Amino acid sequence: MRADKFKVADFHCDVLSKMQASPDINFDNDPRLDVTAERLASGGVELQCFAIFLSTNRGKPSFEHVLGQIDLFRQKIVNTDGLQWLQWKEQVGNRLVGAPPQAMLSLEGVDGLEGNLFYAQLCFELGVRFLGVTWNYANWAADGVLEQRNGGFTEKGRKLIEWCNESGMLLDVSHLSQTGFWELADLSNRPFIASHSNASAICGHVRNLNDEQIKALIAMDGRMGLTFYPWFVRDDGKARMDDLLKHIEHVCNLGGEKHMMFGSDFDGIDTWVEKLEHPGKYPDLIEQLLRYYPEDTVKGWMYENAASFLSANLPSQVSKP
User: Fold this and answer.
1) Angle of helix 155-167 relative to helix 117-125, nearest 10 degrees?
2) What is the 3-state secondary structure (H, E, C) of 18-29?
3) Cα angle for residues 300, 306, 310 (degrees, 5° grid)
4) Which one, 88, 187, 218, 222, has the greatest CB density within 10 A?
5) How far apart are CA 136 and CA 146, in angstroms?
6) pTM, to two decimals
7) Which positions are tagged coiled coil (predicted)?
């Protein structure tokens, strides 16, 4: 099978925060973006997840800023001529030939919810389907991975977990502290993902997952999105595609062949894996993978593992109140 015929799912990009900072950005083909509509099409990306990330450059995170990025997503990404909005499990794989790619919304760090679960409910009603609990530092819900105290969830954070389990909002542990990871594994009755994290056994960056965390994700039938930020791929930050394959092989050796996907972090990074600078390069990555792995396995990593998770865990439109 030709590489350009593979479907791709990418679980993390930061287009929306760039758009909020520069409202004149054109999603179709703006050179200021890594991820554009043109590059998604040329790379065979069938599903792209867009993160709502509130940069500290805009001051204290607020729910108003969250709403601003949701509005940008509605106006510039999933408008009449744009991508198709994926919100419900019934939409996964239910596609017409030639349909535009699907797009999902996630929230990277709940700081902008201001500790208010009503705001979380509004995000769900407005189409957000994944919550990353923290960015790198502490917020009202939990500690991020760069907090030296390595704390877990606050009382409000535990209530957030409970609400997510009840509502159908899915959780993302990329950026969460190790203590928080294990608390969430104990408290959640639903599987979660790490949308953009690699294996710390291969690259020691603090944001990567250790073997026990990866095994826990596998055991709960969660998903791990390998990311393309060079500093998460190789310790010296000078990464090529072959270096990414070392993470893939390591996760496979832990039993995670059916649990891997990709979360590029495009538009959230300022250096790139060589020859993997934007989603239009996905066919090159696929060709590299096919040199070492069977076609069905590569199909799983590129799209099917992500799709099976969404089919099982997204809320149902049929049963919604």
Assistant:
1) 30
2) HHHHCCCCCCCC
3) 140
4) 222
5) 5
6) 0.96
7) none
Coil/strand/helix, residue 166: helix
Half-sphere exposure at residue 136, Cβ-oriented, CA atoms within 13 angstroms: 8
The amino acid occupying position 12 is H
What angle, 0 to 180 degrees and rounded to 10, lies between the N-to-C axes of helices 241-253 and 282-290? 60
- Written as six digits, the tokens of 197 are 């994290």
Q: What are phi and psi of 77, to 5 degrees?
A: -105, -50
- The per-residue pLDDT for range 275-285, each reduced to its tens digit, is 999 999 999 99
- Taking the C-alpha atoms of residue 98 and residue 25, their distance in angstroms, rounded to an integer, is 26
What is the signed CA dihedral for 45, 296, 306, 186, rounded to 10 degrees? -150
The Cα–Cα gap between 181 and 173 comes to 6
CA nearest to 215, candidates 203, 228, 201, 229: 201
Strands (E) located in the chain: 8-13, 45-52, 84-85, 102-108, 128-132, 170-172, 193-194, 223-226, 260-262
How far is it, in rounded angstroms, from Cα 74 to Cα 84? 10
Tell me the C-alpha distance between 52 and 66, whole Å: 7
Alpha-carbon distance 200 to 32, whole Å? 31
Phi, psi (deg, nearest 5) at residue 225: -95, 105
What are the pLDDT digits (tens) for 158-168?
Answer: 999 999 999 99
- Tokens standing for 224? 């791990």
**Distance between CA atoms of 306 and 233, rounded to whole angstroms?**
21
The pLDDT assigned to 80 comes to 83
Q: What is the DSSP string of 207-218?
A: TSBPHHHHHHHH
Q: Which two tokens stand for residue 2?
A: 């030709």
3-state secondary structure of 47: strand
Under DSSP, is residue 103 helix (H, G, I), strand (E, B) or coil? strand
| Torsion on CA atoms 187, 312, 115, 121, rounded to nearest 10 | -140
Which tokens belong to 315? 């809320």
